[in-house]
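If you are new to this repository, start here. Below is one unmodified record pulled from the training split, so you can see the exact layout before writing a loader.
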Amino acid sequence: MIRTYSPLRYPGGKGKLIKYFKELFTENDLHQGTYVELYAGGAAVALSLLIDGYASKIIINDDDRSISAFWYSVLNYTEDLCEMIRKTPVNMTTWKKQKEIQKNKKEVGILDLGFSTLFLNRTNRSGILSAGVIGGNKQKGKWKINARYDKETLINKIRLIASYKHKIELYSHDAIHVIKEIIPKLPIKTLIYLDPPYYHKGKQLYMNYYIDKDHEEVAETIRKTYIQKWIITYDEADLIKKVYSGEKMIPYSLKYSAGKNKEGKELMIFSKNLIALNPF
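And here is the target side for that same chain:
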């Protein structure tokens, strides 16, 4: 089992790429450079690169307020968040309350929203915030609501991440904004990772999903980044192959963690200045 530092579970299982990204850092002489995730989600790769000493700084961005509120709470309300984890009972009453918070996420406070995101991520099927609870509403399933909710483990992970806060920058912008406004100011020794919402099942898996023009706009914008190195992962789709035509692409298979375990065909797309490695 691959060790991850992230307290969040995330559909798609990108944590399995941690070893690969470490090899990319080594092969491309990026050691102690900057690593950027434009769709951070669980940020498993970013945290491993930082805590295991590969990157000296990470930048994590997610324009979903639920996700960014969680990471903001980890970095700025560390002990308050840990106290909420320790004291809040893991039961259906709490679950229903957290679902209501997500329905009003534009109005609720950062800490309450951040905790709600963590709670639902750990108690919902496959970590999907809009999914149903593990074990079902009547809790008659084989696994119960607390099956993925070990309080001490979550608290320890949050405190560890917070101890690196001086090396973490957090943003909550659209990816296009980050590419245009923040990326150009970063050093050459930077690796940018884009893991946009899945093309085929984005609507089912993500709160913020893309339509064709969004995928096309991201492609058009990132392809203008020539100084820093970048890598993109996508589920395999004709449109994606078309909009990244001419770039280096490597197909690979990845076991999805959302729903039934199965292998999906994916693509890695590389900037021309990045030494590409075969993922598996």
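Two things worth knowing about this chain: Residues 198 and 235 are 6 Å apart (CA to CA). Strands lie at 33-37, 55-61, 168-171, 190-194, 229-235, 248-256, 262-270.
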